[in-house]
Amino acid sequence: MPRFLLRHALLPDGWRDDVLVTTDTAGLIAAVSPEQNAGDAVLLDGPVLPGLANLHSHAFQRAMAGLAERSGPTADSFWTWRETMYRFAAKLTPADIEAIASQLYAEMLEAGFTAVAEFHYVHHQADGTPYDDPAELSWRILAAAEASGIGLTHLPVLYRHGGFGQREPQPRQRRFLHDSDAYAALLQKLAPAFGGRGDRRLGIAPHSLRAVSPAMLQAAIAALDEIDATAPIHIHIAEQIAEVDECLGWSGRRPVDWLLDQGSVNERWCLVHATHLTTGEILRLARSGAVAGLCPTTEANLGDGLFPAVDYMAAGGRIGIGSDSHVSVDAAEDLRLLEYGQRLIRRSRNLLAGGPECSTGRRLFEATAAGGAQAVGQPMGAIEAGRRADFLLLDGEAPTLAARRGDTVLDSWIFAGQRRPMIREVWVGGRRVVEQGRHVRAGEFAARYRQTLRRLIEE
Fold it and tell me: Tell me: the pLDDT tens digits for 409-423?
């Protein structure tokens, strides 16, 4: 049972020094004892945080980051960006997806994410024909997670329609499509690979209310419940004003209201984006126990809008962060942008601190650590018994962190630590996967990634 001595660590009850952590053979924390000493323990000599969950990822989109920043003949928006994404997705082979995901997951670990919820919607060959093994591309995602060492919550996407009212999908969406029976069969095929481990979870991702019918949504939940009635359910919702308007035209209700009216939304759910909410929806979502999955860098890149974080968190709403399209893969940047967006629209400061004399960095970190752990359904997000031994060792010698202790460590890392690497080591389940700011297999993954990108971009 390996033991760790954490020199200065954030525990659920605050910062403590010389924290002795004992782990078991499954990589879970067995005991936590502050103010101890042990010469045979692995010393993490600096500020130590629990790992964060990246609760929303489309791995393949990392490879197209930067390729949609050229203006088109008409006004650019999320919808024009989506055309670039469709063209890129059509080129991908199984090997491409594994190479891209491996590189991305290494970058996530270097950035402080020790688990990822992969919202995986590229399932079939380019013409829409299933692979001989319908789970081929899911296996590639799993292989990338295994190679990198990141915790994985795999969320195969159910996608069937091209818009509200069960409109027919477009030909360029054919790689994504399932009917209910094929989707249930996919879940059953994948399920054995996700049992009995604290770093793997299988859930579902109905893509959006525009892409699945109400009957298909209920069928997908029932199919998951047959496997695991506590498993995560993630869905895109209310990301764009056009989506809200179309939902009103289809149902007479806004997307979040419509979903909450179905009566099934609870702690299992993660509502990704949920950008455009009324006051009533803010309160209803906060009371549901679900997590709002916020992706500040992607939402800024796509021009989605700003989530009403001040009002939602004041109502007790739960949040987590994801890097989504991966234009940036940096936990600190997403947390910083979450706060800065609120500052810009309200023309004030430290809006998400939670009260007088409170640390904004501490509140953001703890809220997203707890919400992210809930959303991925994994035992992580805190340094305490029963959680996975996921540790972020910050570089206490970095000039940005000089003389910082306690909450000023978090405030400085998030709001003043743009120069990387600020994270010196990362441990997942008691195993070191990042050393001196670099993933232990970074060179290997990067070489394969470069080769993949040359073919995808130059052909």
Answer: 999 999 998 766 799
Distances (CA, A) of 204 to 89, 115, 156, 259, 291: 21, 16, 6, 16, 15
Centre a 10 Å sphere on the Cβ of residue 174 and count the other Cβ atoms it contains: 16
Residue with tokens 């060492």: 149
Catalytic residue, candidates 273, 276, 326, 439:
273
For the chain, the average pLDDT equals 96
pTM recorded for the entire structure: 0.97
H, E, C per residue of the chain: CCEEEEEEEEECCEEEEEEEEEECCCCEEEEEECCCCCCCCEEEEEEEEECEEEEEECHHHHHHCCCCCCCCCCCCCHHHHHHHHHHHHCCCCHHHHHHHHHHHHHHHHHCCEEEEEEEECCCCCCCCCCCCCCCHHHHHHHHHHHHHCCEEEEEEEECCCCECCCECCCHHHHHHCCCHHHHHHHHHHHHHHHCCCCCEEECEEECCCCCCCHHHHHHHHHHHHHHCCCCCEEEEECCCHHHHHHHHHHHCCCHHHHHHHCCCCCCCEEEEECCCCCHHHHHHHHHHCCEEEECHHHHHHHCCCCCCHHHHHHCCCEEEECCECCCCCCHHHHHHHHHHHHHHHHCCCCCCCCCCCCCHHHHHHHHHHHHHHHHHCCCCCCCCCCCECCEEEECCCCHHHCCCCCHHHHHHHHHHCCCCCCEEEEEECCEEEEECCEECCHHHHHHHHHHHHHHHHHC
* Span 14-21, average pLDDT: 98
Query: Each residue of 123-179: pLDDT tens digit?
Result: 999 999 999 999 999 999 999 999 999 999 999 999 999 999 999 999 999 999 999
Q: Using alpha carbons, select from 207, 187, 166 the residue that is nearest to residue 82.
A: 207
Distance CA 389, CA 27 (A): 6
**Residue 324 designated active-site:** yes
To the query of whether residue 273 is one of the catalytic residues in this protein, the response is: yes
Strands 269-273 and 233-237: parallel
Q: What is the pLDDT of residues 362-379, one digit of tens each?
A: 999 999 999 999 999 999
What pLDDT does 83 receive? 85
CB atoms within 10 A of CB 72: 12
Q: Point out the catalytic residue in the list 257, 304, 324, 407.
A: 324
Bridge partners of residue 234, in order along the sequence: 270
